[in-house]
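Hi support team,

I submitted a single chain yesterday and got back a structure, but I'm not sure I'm reading the token output correctly. Could someone confirm the output below corresponds to the sequence I sent? I've pasted both exactly as they appear in my results page.

Thanks,
R.
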Amino acid sequence: MITALVLTLILGVSISIHELGHYLAARLQGVRVPAFSIGFGPPLLRIHWKGTEWRLSLIPLGGYAEIEGMAPDFSPGTQHTETRRGYAGLSFFGKTLVLLGGVLMNLLLAWLLMAWTYTAGGLPVPVENHAEIVEVIPGSLAAEIGLEKGDVIVAIDGRPLKKFTDLNQIKKTVGEHTMTLLRNGKKLTVKLYWSGKRDKLGVRYGPELHYRYPGFGEAFIIAVKTSVHFLPDMLRSFVKGLSGVLIGKPSPDIVGPVGIVNLAGQAARAGFLAVLRLAALINLSLAVFNLLPIPGLDGGRLLLLILNVLSGGRIRPEHEALVNFIGFAFLILLMLLVTLQDVQRLLGG
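Hi R., thanks for writing in. Yes, this is the structure output for that exact sequence:
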């Protein structure tokens, strides 16, 4: 129940914010938006304000903004005039702003959420010459000598670590060794004998992490810089993951509805900050996904807009509508394939 609530809230807000971006970009240019809906399906509540009917609809996963002139009207006697009204009458840059408005709003929300988590949860600062144990494998040598999760190893055989990976030096020499570690603020020395008959010590570890707590302004700037660095990698992961799905090679680079439900459950169990981090990641993912040049997505519409300009306006509205319809059908097929991949991964297939 909590997982469903968390997922509904994250997706509902993220998609509604995306549509709000389209709405604001249209209204700033004087384009009418007859309806804006939070959710899909039959409206439960209708409010008229600023020339728009604001709806709260039955199915909370999603939303939409009806922008005048964006979907051509092919009814008799209206086609010629409709193509010049509303969105269709905007300049190239005006249309681009409307198309990218949703992406910009998802990015803004992601940055705000990231900044919030940085100020509340802190920014990790790795101590490269300390090795922190994050997991001890049951039955391993590490478990036998009493190592615990959270122990911080600072020296091997009396020599301070230069890098946290120096913990592996133990495995290079058969014989007795000592570890100097910090546990709950106290320094301890642990003895062990490495026989060379095992492959691993039996721990997962990384650099010790300290945390600093920046102000919100600094945290926001860090969030923007982090996402700018991260977005190209995310785009490559999307392309790689979608390509893998289409050729029948499942990839961990992409998850669908089932995978998102699993992530939402993990976040709900981890606490409020984990939910905010997941929400930030989903908004970044929505921004990147919508920029893909697939018809039906904002990136696909933008590509058609550019091609239409380059061709001197030869792409007719009915042709654009057909291409977008095919794109939507492709996206539905893609979603089904990704969902199947999620199920197979969940079942270990």
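A quick pointer for reading it: Residues 141 and 240 are 39 Å apart (CA to CA). Let us know if anything else looks off.

Best,
Support desk
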